[in-house]
């Protein structure tokens, strides 16, 4: 608990290095989901809610990809689109190398076994009139699968697997607490031995002590069954705990995608930094040292008309003209860390020629303590020097890239 | 907001056109499809033992020999701008809105409707006021003290109200208060002539009709209020230190009553098209009674007129309800 | 009205003579709130005591059903209103600024509500009336307790909206709740609660429905306003991060009772109750990287109808067998002092507690 103990906890080696070599299970490119807005007497389409607006990432076998972001950033929509519960309006989704972007219901049917979803609300997602047995065995019926030893036996095995008693087979959802219902939801998702499980806020409706039980359960199941998870959550502490790699979303875009250690210890996107600094740390001694806290001004802009250039420029304390005009591409600035920013933190500036802050940025900077500002200048300079000294090629590559990828947009 | 109103208005007009088309089809197309000739239709205007020439004349004058869509067009034109019929030696000017002539009495339909409309309006509005006040009050009291004596009593009466048919409660009221103890008048007097007499005569009818409806409203209000009073914003209102009666009236009722507006608009609209049984039971010469009489006589034009008038009231009521709802609930204005 | 005062003393126990004058601004003594239901008596709060001074923040922590929200409603006198409030059984004492509220005339409590004590709720969207403008709702809150014209109250509402950081307050005052973002709504809710300068502010999970960045803004705002108005704040939350951020004192509730209470530093550094350890161990941390498993509390929260005998936590406590005999199953532990202002209700001996905490729990966090 106390600070001195921290060093005693041996941080296990990141699994991300071998993960790089692991097979890609899910590959998403330029994924878009726009919801049309209709208005007026004729209900013409006057615009669109750009819930997901061009994102790329891949999920490797056996890893956990965490997706974080504030409400309205499109993370839940993304989850529903990659499981094809909703149709994308653009981009492509490949699952095990197969393009599943445009598969119809019949085409998706065999894939429904491999891709499963766990939902947030353990109350709303279980039909109150069905027994637990019938809920958990539904996937077998729908897919016409006859498990070894019969459905009932398999369901009871699943219930045991998620820590419920097999005798619960004939009970109804209302007899269970929230945590137990979430276990039932997990048992149902695992019935067909899926390869990919997409969990949308799997623990946010649960009490802290129960939340830990479910997190541990998901962890165990991953070890045991070799599952791959995409975990969508707003709680950055939970995401840090469960994920190997993490994607940070803002207004329908991924702004940073990195392995856990890099992201939490040296975040590069100012938004990531602000987001993490906002999480209250359960350590009263760190209160008062408000230096780390970055308060963001106002609210997230509307996804109907997202800001030009970098979407975060309206609230960023580092924003300059280029941020307003040019959308920064998601570049791998450091191995395993992709960032979409012209002026990243903890790294060399990508647009050093552009130094004049926007007015909004000056206002935003008032809420950011001097320590943060100084620190970021310092680290940027230090990293720049380091990078220059050690690897000249990579500097060239990194600074050369923005122009090259601008055309892509 | 303006776009919202416009959209609703256009929808209302389209709905009315559809209703006229369907009604017209039922009354004039179906008989033809069922094998009735234009001659047989024309014959109904003339009465017993018509001559061939008479039928042909009527057929031509009324356009019964025309294709159906032309007849429909003439019909709509008649409603909008009136029509002139060439009835042999004389011509008859049927002013807009023209719903044609009765087969039996050869009287224009529209003046008949306007004559009877005040009776129906008196009946419907009077009863509506009573059931709204009674039903909502009973519902609120029941909701504030669920399972109390008052709640059980009101809900018991409500159950009886919904279950008992009008021809029972109506006859009973008539028997008791008009014949047994003649407190109330027997013949309808227009409001403009003698308001006291007007109310006096209509009172038993109002009560019977209101009992039926207030039962439904009491239940609606009760469930609406029970739900609303458990809302978070009620807790907030109490946390402000508001008196409980203000919490109920300003915060609870406002939210609970808004959905009831919808039902009320529909019910009132329907009733204005004629309270068939009530008018018959209480011998009130309203739209409903006119409809019954015309149906008995197989008199198509008045039936068509009544149907369209009723549809008109329902559509208009719907339109008003939509506007009212938007005014009451700011969230509706967005969509 | 008389019904309500009767229920005040309806619980078998006689109301203790309130001769002992309160020593703090807010003092709750042996508060019990029980709800009779068809399934049995729900003992939501079952003997709770604490004190709170002006200018200080007390955090009440617990899981759903621990009684923390009922406690706040009891202080406000809100749980006795409405159809379900008629048969609430309540006993104990609540002293606010020298006035006793449990036995007070309900109308007197009503006059204090919103003026001396105010409350903000978890979900500002459902906590505001959807049909009235933000301005109207604030004006109403002000005019309940101040005999002023609507115009004056409106000016006050705009002033408050400005104070809580809502841009263009003169324009937004006429907006409806659904037109505000979540964060702005919670700001408006705070403006409404503070419009009468209450001396006690109760915040029930004020940031749970909000995003972290907005949560940071709101916590900051509450802290600033508290400094400015010097009010006492009761903050109810399940998030120990928020507690560490804002509280002076912490009260941990379990099964309707306080299991541990103390200054915030003590609670985080020297927690003295296995349930508190469980909460700390269940919580993933953003400030450190551990791939180790979380240490959850096993089992489910207790039913408030059949609260386990003895220590309510014993069925879930990993150390229930450490004290000799079946004391944890039969005897209800009382709060005992374990440090300055630090109390814990646990049968473990102080030595055992220290040993378990330092050797078994702390290293794993």
TrEMBL record, chain A:
Q: Which Pfam families did the record assign?
A: ABC_tran (PF00005), oligo_HPY (PF08352)
Question: GO molecular function: any one?
Answer: ATP hydrolysis activity
Gene3D superfamilies linked:
P-loop containing nucleotide triphosphate hydrolases
Q: Which UniProt keywords apply?
A: ATP-binding, Nucleotide-binding, Transport
Q: What SUPFAM superfamilies would the database entry show?
A: P-loop containing nucleoside triphosphate hydrolases
Against InterPro entries, the record matches this protein to: AAA+_ATPase, ABC_transp_ATP-bind, ABC_transporter-like_ATP-bd, ABC_transporter-like_CS, Oligopep_ABC_C, P-loop_NTPase
Q: Which domain of life is it from?
A: Bacteria
Protein's name according to its UniProt entry: Dipeptide ABC transporter ATP-binding protein
Q: Does the keyword Mitochondrion apply?
A: no
Q: Which residues form the ABC transporter domain?
A: 26-276
BP GO terms, sorted: peptide transport; transmembrane transport
Which species expresses this protein natively? Streptomyces cupreus
Disordered as annotated region, ranges: 373-409
Q: Where is the composition biased (Low complexity)?
A: 374-388
On whether ATP-binding is a keyword of this UniProt record, the answer is yes
UniProtKB/TrEMBL annotation, chain B:
Similarity comment text for this entry: Belongs to the binding-protein-dependent transport system permease family.
The record's SUPFAM superfamilies line, in alphabetical order, gives: MetI-like
Query: What GO molecular function annotation could you give as one example from this UniProt entry?
Result: dipeptide transmembrane transporter activity
GO CC annotations on file: plasma membrane
Which PANTHER family does the UniProt entry name for this protein?
A: DIPEPTIDE TRANSPORT SYSTEM PERMEASE PROTEIN DPPB-RELATED
Extract the InterPro entries matched here.
BPD_transp_1_N (IPR045621), MetI-like (IPR000515), MetI-like_sf (IPR035906)
User: Keywords, A to Z?
Assistant: Cell membrane, Membrane, Transmembrane, Transmembrane helix, Transport
Predominant location of this chain? membrane
Q: Where are the transmembrane segments?
A: 9-30, 119-144, 156-181, 201-220, 255-277, 303-325
Q: Does Transport appear among the keywords?
A: yes
Is Transmembrane helix among this UniProt entry's keywords?
yes
According to Swiss-Prot or TrEMBL, what is its membrane topology? Answer: Multi-pass membrane protein
The chain positions of domain ABC transmembrane type-1 read 117-325
- This chain belongs to the protein called ABC transporter permease
- UniProt subcellular location: Cell membrane
UniProtKB/TrEMBL annotation, chain C:
Q: Which Gene3D superfamilies match?
A: P-loop containing nucleotide triphosphate hydrolases (3.40.50.300)
Q: Check the record and name the CDD domains matching this protein.
A: ABC_NikE_OppD_transporters
Q: How does it sit in the membrane?
A: Peripheral membrane protein
Residue stretches making up the ABC transporter domain: 28-280
Record key words, sorted: ATP-binding, Cell membrane, Membrane, Nucleotide-binding, Transport
What biological-process terms (Gene Ontology) are attached? Answer: peptide transport
**What terms describe the molecular function in GO for this protein?**
ATP binding; ATP hydrolysis activity
The entry's localization annotation reads: Cell membrane
Residue ranges of the TM segments? none
Give the matching Pfam families: ABC_tran, oligo_HPY
User: InterPro entries given for it?
Assistant: AAA+_ATPase, ABC_Ni/Peptide_Import, ABC_transporter-like_ATP-bd, ABC_transporter-like_CS, Oligopep_ABC_C, P-loop_NTPase
Primary location:
membrane
Q: Which GO terms describe its cellular component?
A: plasma membrane
**Family of the protein in this entry:** Belongs to the ABC transporter superfamily.
PANTHER family on file: DIPEPTIDE TRANSPORT ATP-BINDING PROTEIN DPPD, OLIGOPEPTIDE TRANSPORT ATP-BINDING PROTEIN APPD
Q: What is this protein called?
A: ABC transporter ATP-binding protein
Biological source species: Streptomyces cupreus
- Species classification: Bacteria, Bacillati, Actinomycetota, Actinomycetes, Kitasatosporales
